[in-house]
Amino acid sequence: MTAITIAIVDDHPLFREGVSRTLSEIDDFVVVGEGASADDAATLAASHGPDVLLLDVFMPGGGIDAISEILARSPQTKVLMLTASEEVESLVTALKRGAAGYLVKGIGSCGLAEAVRTVVGGSWFVSPSMRAKMVEKSLFVGRTSLTPRELEVIELVAEGLSNKHIGRRLNLQEKTIKHHMTEILSKLGASNRTEAAIKWRQRA
């Protein structure tokens, strides 16, 4: 079993220590470093090149502002935001900067482990509550003509899920997801699912 290496950067010591202890108890997770600032995050990325770096939004130097430097120093590292901020703008900005996921503090140990494994596997992960807020915001501002179901599908596409996995998540047949994708591509003026995901993230 290949270990997943993790670094944790948060300026609240008790919270950081709790997360570190929780993750260290999982067999294939290894916490390789901790920090409290954007500078610490960049240093950890350069010195350890962790598979995943958990990063708070609000910290000295700014978590979101640190993403580019982290990825410049360790391109293979997956940045996973773990924050109290439930602002959609923070989520969208973090993803645009290169974060692989966005979690709201209060998530349980199982959810946190799932998120870590998901981003290591190459997919995006966003807390369900934040996905719901993005859908709600999109419906409110009326920036697209996507139906509620299409909004759910494009959110999961933006997380990196395949049609098969989206079907399982929404309890729909894969051919139904393909139909929704055809409509989504047409409405967003996209030629493929990757372009659709990018356009959707820019609209949010």
UniProtKB/TrEMBL annotation:
Location of 4-aspartylphosphate modifications: 56
SUPFAM superfamilies tied to this protein: C-terminal effector domain of the bipartite response regulators (SSF46894), CheY-like (SSF52172)
Keyword set, alphabetical order: DNA-binding, Phosphoprotein
Domain HTH luxR-type residue range list: 139-204
Classification via InterPro entries: CheY-like_superfamily, EvgA-like, NreC/VraR/RcsB-like_REC, Sig_transdc_resp-reg_C-effctor, Sig_transdc_resp-reg_receiver, Tscrpt_reg_LuxR_C
Residue span, Response regulatory domain: 5-120
Pfam families linked to this entry: GerE, Response_reg
Protein name, as recorded: Response regulator transcription factor
Record organism: Rhizobium ruizarguesonis
